[in-house]
């Protein structure tokens, strides 16, 4: 099967990455650097980039609501607005991906245990193979686990998780994440 890839940047908003009320996400500078690297690779390869922006982070127009300026979309890159943790629920994301023939998603962004987890899992039930960038997602500490522990846990439990045929691979940003290797495991 021929794979057509898109990069999905989820909730990489200033109010999440730098959130002073809940503490910033784990290693915010490293997260931004990784997402910048992945964005550069995608854009150089003409891979479609789509952003998802959470409407519940802050009011539109506020700095906290904005996608972090260091990793902001280019004018031609679509931004999908959502209210649920699931980036596909009540949005046009699936339709936009289908219209472009996408069947492999590379995912980066925030927050690991909520929106990243939900998007990865839902994508597989919609027929997408997923590559989650190991060092390209983050979250803040919870009452039970540090952000670093949550990230490590999800990297472990999501790697290899599948629904029917499509499944998730977790790969480091220094690998060729845009070249899906899923078929070599089938």
UniProtKB/TrEMBL annotation:
Keyword list, A-Z: Hydrolase
Keyword hit for Ubl conjugation: no
Q: Which domain of life is it from?
A: Bacteria
Protein family per UniProt? Belongs to the isochorismatase family.
* Isochorismatase-like domain mapped to chain residues: 5-141
Provide the GO MF annotations for this entry: hydrolase activity
Q: Name one Pfam family in it.
A: Isochorismatase
Q: Which InterPro entries match?
A: Isochorismatase-like_dom, Isochorismatase-like_hydrls, Isochorismatase-like_sf
Please identify the protein, giving its name as recorded. Answer: Cysteine hydrolase
Record's keyword annotation contains Transmembrane helix: no
| UniProt xrefs under PANTHER family | ISOCHORISMATASE (PTHR43540:SF14), PEROXYUREIDOACRYLATE/UREIDOACRYLATE AMIDOHYDROLASE-RELATED (PTHR43540)
């Amino acid at each position: 099967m021929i794979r057509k890839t898109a990069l999905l940047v989820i909730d990489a908003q200033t109010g999440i990455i730098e959130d002073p009320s809940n503490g910033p996400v784990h290693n915010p500078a490293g997260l931004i650097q990784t997402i910048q690297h992945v964005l550069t690779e995608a854009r150089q390869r003409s891979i479609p980039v789509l952003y998802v922006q959470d409407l519940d982070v802050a009011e539109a127009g506020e700095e906290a609501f904005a996608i972090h300026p260091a990793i902001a979309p280019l004018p031609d890159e679509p931004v999908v607005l959502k209210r649920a943790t699931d980036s596909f629920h009540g949005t046009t994301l699936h339709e936009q991906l289908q219209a472009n023939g996408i069947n492999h998603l590379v995912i980066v962004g925030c927050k690991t245990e909520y929106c990243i987890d939900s998007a990865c899992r839902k994508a597989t039930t919609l027929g997408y193979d997923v590559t989650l960038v190991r060092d390209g997602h983050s979250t803040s500490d919870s009452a039970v686990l540090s952000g670093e522990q949550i990230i490590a846990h999800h990297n472990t439990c999501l790697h290899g998780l599948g629904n029917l045929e499509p499944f998730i691979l977790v790969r480091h940003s220094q690998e060729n994440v845009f070249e899906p290797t899923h078929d070599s495991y089938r």
